Recover the amino acids of this structure.
């Protein structure tokens, strides 16, 4: 299906790892390498969407659940802390686990090192806010969860660039679209992820406290 052993792709991934680990020094166009790798893989993946459909569906559901957990946790924490210190701002973000997906069909050849480069927000800059935009409280306190994930209007399906007949009724959330279209993850990088990490930052006028919670 996906030709991970393609010579060009293998050489490109090796160069990404070498540059990320500093073996070849500072590579100023590292983001271009990530983008090129994404395009090479997606060119193949989009020709095999039917085979990838179960993984796409499972990932979308796992992503939705992770964002719902983060959304609920953020609101509970904001209520607790603001009751003691009213003048606060809470920002919640959701990231994919930094552990290489155990479900990915390729499980060798420095995949963890490559995954770390892909998850590095300095390299994959549009991933800085995580899988989607940040939830900020109290600014977004009235925002329903369905609005947060882009499911509050028709068509409630963020399947741009995918086969409309195959994916027309999948209800893909906006975070799926963000990862697929706006970051340098290839489709087959993230659809095998099932573990997520949330990051919650609470700011007051005098302090900044970080709360981390792993699902």
């Amino acid at each position: 299906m996906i030709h991970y052993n393609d010579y060009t792709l293998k050489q490109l991934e090796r160069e990404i790892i070498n540059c990320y680990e500093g073996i070849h020094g500072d590579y100023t166009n590292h983001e271009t390498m990530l983008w090129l790798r994404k395009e090479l893989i997606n060119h193949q993946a989009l020709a095999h969407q039917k085979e990838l459909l179960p993984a796409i569906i499972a990932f979308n559901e796992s992503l939705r659940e992770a964002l719902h957990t983060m959304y609920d946790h953020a609101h509970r924490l904001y209520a607790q802390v603001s009751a003691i210190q009213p003048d606060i701002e809470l920002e919640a973000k959701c990231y994919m686990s930094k552990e290489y997906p155990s479900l990915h069909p390729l499980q060798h050849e420095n995949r963890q090192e490559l995954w770390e480069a892909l998850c590095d927000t300095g390299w994959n800059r549009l991933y800085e806010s995580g899988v989607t935009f940040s939830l900020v409280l109290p600014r977004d306190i009235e925002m329903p969860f369905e609005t947060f994930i882009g499911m509050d209007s028709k068509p409630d399906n963020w399947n741009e660039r995918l086969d409309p007949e195959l994916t027309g009724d999948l209800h893909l959330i906006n975070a799926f679209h963000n990862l697929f279209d706006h970051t340098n993850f290839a489709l087959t990088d993230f659809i095998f992820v099932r573990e997520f990490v949330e990051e919650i930052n609470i700011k007051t006028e005098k302090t900044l406290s970080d709360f981390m919670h792993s699902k």
In short: Confidence is low (pLDDT under 50) at residues 208-215. The CA atoms of residues 68 and 145 lie 7 Å apart. The chain has one domain: 53-214.
